[in-house]
């Protein structure tokens, strides 16, 4: 119970900490605790921060280069590993 209170105090002070940084912070304050125990306790109490991931655009669809047609579109292969172009 004291460990949970110590974890909660650190999380309230530093909201962005994950379980690894929490473990290091606890070890600096004198706790002898393993990161797996800290992770289990934070998951049980749902104390870990959940960051929303932002969508990253990796393709620029509005480039000035020509767009080549899809030559395979509409074709069905007769057998595996057979070239579609004759």
TrEMBL record:
Transmembrane segments: none annotated. It comes from the Bacteria. Residues 2-53 form the HTH-like domain. InterPro entries: HTH-like_dom, Transposase_IS3/IS150/IS904. This is HTH-like domain-containing protein. It comes from Dictyobacter formicarum.
């Amino acid at each position: 119970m004291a460990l949970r209170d110590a974890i909660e105090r650190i999380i309230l002070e530093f909201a962005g900490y994950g379980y690894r940084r929490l473990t290091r912070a606890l070890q600096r304050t004198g706790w002898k605790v393993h990161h797996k125990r800290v992770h289990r306790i934070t998951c049980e109490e749902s104390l870990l921060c959940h960051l929303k991931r932002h969508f990253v655009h990796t393709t620029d669809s509005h480039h000035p280069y020509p767009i080549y047609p899809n030559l395979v579109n509409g074709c069905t292969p007769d057998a595996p590993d057979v070239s579609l172009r004759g």
